[in-house]
TrEMBL record:
Organism: Channa striata (Snakehead murrel)
Record field: transmembrane: 225-249
PANTHER family: JUNCTIONAL ADHESION MOLECULE 2 PRECURSOR (PTHR44663:SF1), JUNCTIONAL ADHESION MOLECULE B (PTHR44663)
Gene3D superfamilies tied to this protein: Immunoglobulins (2.60.40.10)
GO annotation, biological process: leukocyte cell-cell adhesion
Protein name: Ig-like domain-containing protein
Pfam families the record matches: Ig_3 (PF13927), V-set (PF07686)
All residue ranges annotated as the Ig-like domain in the record: 16-119, 126-217
Signal peptide: 1-20
Length: 289
């Protein structure tokens, strides 16, 4: 048995093993700051083929080529390089974020295609946010101030300042703040809410950015406008009162007495003689004559 086992073992060691091309990435998720270099790793091993074909593609609404036929395509031409199968993109922007696929085709191997995916996330520091602060508002009005930075990645959080002092919403403050949406809301504005307002956006990528402070004035209603509003309110109340009186009068039958009076007056006049009796009267009168 031992003499038979040894030749069998030697035959197995010297027999060709069916291997296929293998592709992997040592870092399948890559995060880099904007305007820096992104290295998308791709390592492969082939069975026989010493010169396999290497391609890089990017997934989006469709699939576009990054590296094809030994050259870079589109916006990657002139700002990318390849080492083995590892791809390096220089000075990345937010448009470069997405999922990339490394494909290695070894035509001489038993299984001739292998692939690996790498996700690139380009981090963007805060930009100067857009701030919406009205120039003036009437006392007692509701008010919402808006702040938005659409470019920062990850999304920014927001903080509001009045006269260069940070605002913090509590149960006692007349306003509320949404740090994720960037809103500052007042239910009823008072004279003390007037001042210089600005908003600041921040994330963990770069330094916070702030919009230019804007003046908010809180003004009283003009005297003439107050009189006009009061007069209009009084007119509406009077109109409603008249409508109520008419409805009550109709329900109580105030108009029925007036109708009865008219009907009683009409019965005071004697009814005209019937037409038939008048003809009979004429006939009798002519006979007598």
């Amino acid at each position: 048995m031992e003499m038979l086992a040894l030749p069998l073992l030697l035959a197995l060691l010297h027999s060709p093993v069916c291997l296929s091309v293998t592709v992997r990435s040592s870092k399948p998720k890559v995060e880099v700051h904007e305007h820096t270099d992104a290295v998308l790793s791709c390592e492969f091993r082939t069975e026989k083929d010493q010169n396999p074909r290497i391609e890089w593609k990017k997934k989006g609404k469709g699939v576009t080529f990054v590296y094809f036929n030994n050259k870079f395509t589109g916006s990657y031409a002139g700002r990318a390089k390849i080492d083995g199968a590892t791809l390096t993109i220089h000075s990345v922007t937010q448009k470069d974020s997405g999922e990339y696929r490394c494909e290695v085709t070894a035509s001489e191997d038993h299984v001739n295609l292998g692939e690996a995916s790498v996700t690139l996330n380009v981090l963007v520091p805060p930009h100067v946010p857009s701030c919406e602060v009205p120039s003036s508002v009437f006392v007692g009005s509701g008010l919402e101030l808006l702040c938005k930075d659409k470019l920062s990645v990850p999304p920014a959080t927001y903080h509001w300042y009045k006269d260069n002092k940070a605002l913090t919403a509590t149960a006692d403050t007349p306003y509320s703040i949404d740090t994720n949406k960037g809103t500052l809301k007042f239910k009823s504005v008072s004279k003390t809410d007037a001042g210089m307002y600005r908003c600041e956006s921040s994330n963990n990528v770069g330094a916070p950015k702030s919009c230019v402070a804007q003046q908010l004035k809180v003004i009283e209603y003009p005297f003439k406008m107050t009189i006009l509003i009061a007069g209009a309110a009084g007119f509406v109340i009077l109109l409603l009162f008249c409508c109520i009186c008419v409805c009550v009068c109709q329900r109580r039958g105030c108009c029925k007495k007036h109708k009865k009076t008219k009907s009683s007056q009409s019965y005071n006049h004697p009814p005209p003689p019937p037409t038939r009796n008048l003809k009979h009267y004429k006939h009798t009168h002519s006979f007598m004559v």
